[in-house]
């Protein structure tokens, strides 16, 4: 599979962009665990053109996570074009590696974004969505991709026709989450329409499927049954970044890896924590790790007091010592292979 000049091999696995989750530390960890492509958190176009430090900082990427996509969102054409140009030059503006791909977020269902017409709110204005996409494609040099959903609701699943239109204005790959905006993350993802887009003889760009893939057998079925070029994994990676390694192993060998033992999870949690401190420092790197740390160990018995220490301590050494304690106390406690977190 290729996007522009980027080659990903056969049946690659991508890390989905997730707000407050896919920062540099998490992206690097998922890359180390087998993610072929990672994406930044959502970057607001309005924040970029206002020169907001937080928005610009989200575009900072590193060579070790490449290839990496910078994802932008918004609902005003002129702002999206300017934001795309800034993302195109992210290395100069934000430092680091910059963007290999510019991805447009037409899929986020969160009310504060969709209600004002951005994210999946754009599904109610497909003409405007296509116009914004065309303008962005024409404004930048990097490959432009789109992430979207099936439609706004059950009565307006427009993705098959919309995919053709987005392809016709120049996007180089399309990611489809198999739910409508009104579903949010409820119910099951419907991959049948994703497959219909992929098998449409008019489509020639890569189609990336997204939604409810948490293990190797599910990924294999999605590739085999629907023919997608890649799979994007979102919520299943939260507290479980090794999901990429598990799925890759199954796709390559047909065998499922045993669930990761607690000491191995501790090692990854410590790696994640140290990366967060390296790139964000204290106390920010500590605060932003709290939602991650306890999720590494979901399901451990009698874990609440230890969890409270993980999510309340401001002392890096105390947190590392607590993680070492977890590795010893629960060393032989089996945990399920994966959990999906509602984030």
In brief:
The chain has 343 residues and is α/β, with parallel strands linked by helices. The protein has 16 helices and ten strands.
Task: Tell me the layout of helices and strands.
Layout: E1 2-3, E2 6-7, E3 13-15, H1 24-32, E4 38-44, H2 45-49, H3 53-57, E5 68-73, H4 77-88, H5 90-94, E6 101-106, H6 111-114, H7 126-139, E7 144-149, H8 159-168, E8 174-177, H9 192-198, E9 207-210, H10 216-226, E10 230-233, H11 243-253, H12 262-280, H13 284-287, H14 290-293, H15 304-312, H16 316-329
Number of helices: 16
Quick one: overall form? globular
Indicate the mean pLDDT: 95
Radius of gyration: 20 Å
Question: What strand line-up does the widest sheet have?
Answer: 3-10-9-8-7-6-5-4
Structural class: alpha/beta
Q: What's the N-to-C terminus distance?
A: 29 Å
CATH class of the largest domain: Alpha Beta
The CATH topology label of the largest domain is TIM Barrel
The fourth-level CATH homologous superfamily of the largest domain is: Aldolase class I
CATH architecture of the largest domain: Alpha-Beta Barrel
Q: How many strands? A: 10
Roughly what fraction of the amino acids lie in strands? 5-15%
Instruction: Return the string of H and E elements.
Output: EEEHEHHEHHEHHEHEHEHEHHHHHH
Estimated helix fraction: 40-55%
Low-confidence regions = none
Largest sheet properties: 8 strands, parallel
Return the domain count: 2
